[in-house]
Design a protein that fits this description.
This protein is α/β, with parallel strands linked by helices. Helix content is 34%, strand content 24%. It has a domain at 4-92 and 167-246: Rossmann fold (3-Layer(aba) Sandwich), CATH 3.40.50. It is built from 8 helices and 12 strands. The strands form 3 sheets. A 6-stranded mixed beta sheet has the order 8-9-10-5-11-12, with helices on both faces. Strand 9 (168-171), helix 6 and strand 10 (200-204) form a beta-alpha-beta unit. The protein binds adenosine-5'-diphosphate and magnesium ion (MG). Residues 16, 19, 23, 41, 43-49 line the site of adenosine-5'-diphosphate. Keywords: ATP-binding, Cell membrane, Membrane, Nucleotide-binding, Phosphonate transport, Translocase, Transport. GO terms for molecular function: ABC-type phosphonate transporter activity; ATP binding; ATP hydrolysis activity. It comes from Dulcicalothrix desertica PCC 7102.
Length: 247
């Protein structure tokens, strides 16, 4: 059995009056090193909240989350972010900056402000360009991200997360809104990071077929609770049940 990198024990987050319950409700799960996990669920189920809680961006009101056996409460955000990279829903790139500048933004948590006063160190530039090259974006390094296609932007966001050399990459709906080919390129990139670089991947997906094709394991959230944790086959019948639960 692989070692656990992220563990949630009885996690609850803020109680929402509009929902008459906490956003996340008694969530228990483990993410093991080297896994490729699909996080699934209907809109509003709590998927983004769960991913954000893995990097300390959402406060937990009850229970504990540990990353590498270190409780979230006893560490700092920059330390977590060095271990756990995140691709935000919609990419979260700065549209007016070039691809390479966006990738360099991933170093802001590591470099002291004075170190970037006159630009980033040369080795950071080299690394950013190398990552863009690896992700097939060499020709677009100096292009404003607003003029890149959705799939290219998503790969820039991946490079920005990778410049921290994270052990775990969390991706929130990385292929939503992309055409089939661009979605395949992004998913293949995540698969390569997982198989060749050993990076643990947890990604929110909506397509059950893609989840079954790429992920070894699925976590399904419904109304803030984990209702399925297991292999990706049988997902269709799991979702049929969730659909009827949520009505
Ligand atoms: N900061 C917040 N303030 C109020 N409600 C929130 C906040 N974050 C999330 N929610 C609510 O919590 C629920 C789960 O949200 P989210 O985690 O974004 O779901 P998902 O990503 O599965 O669509 C939704 O009903 C959403 O409206
Ligand atoms: Mg979401």
């Amino acid at each position: 059995m692989n070692e656990t990198v992220i563990e949630c024990r009885d996690v609850e987050t803020a109680f929402l009056k509009s929902l008459h319950r906490p956003i996340l409700n008694q969530v228990n799960c483990q993410i093991r090193r080297g896994e490729f996990v699909a996080l699934l669920g209907l809109n509003g189920a709590g998927k983004s909240t769960l991913l954000r809680s893995f990097v300390g961006l959402t406060q937990v009101s009850r229970g504990t989350i540990t990353v590498d056996n270190i409780p979230m409460a006893s560490t700092t955000l920059p330390k977590i972010r060095r271990n756990v990279g995140m691709l935000f829903q919609g990419g979260g790139l700065i549209r007016q900056l070039s691809a390479v500048e966006n990738v360099l933004c991933g170093r802001l948590g590591v470099r002291k402000p004075w170190q970037t006063l006159f630009g980033f160190p040369k080795q950071d530039y080299r690394l950013a360009l190398q990552l863009l090259d690896e992700l097939g974006l060499h020709e677009h390094a100096y292009q404003k991200t607003s003029s890149l296609s959705g799939g290219q932007q998503q790969r820039v966001a991946i490079a920005r997360a990778l410049i921290q050399s994270p052990q775990v990459l969390l991706a929130d709906e990385p292929i939503t809104g992309l055409d089939v080919m661009a979605a395949k390129q992004v998913m293949d990139t995540l698969a390569k990071l997982n198989s060749e670089h050993g990076i643990t991947i947890v990604t929110v997906l909506h397509d059950l077929g893609i989840a079954a094709e790429y992920a070894q394991r699925a976590l399904v959230l419904d109304a803030g609770r984990i209702v399925y944790d297991g292999a990706c086959h049988n997902l269709q019948s799991e979702f049929a049940q969730i659909g009827s639960l949520s009505k």
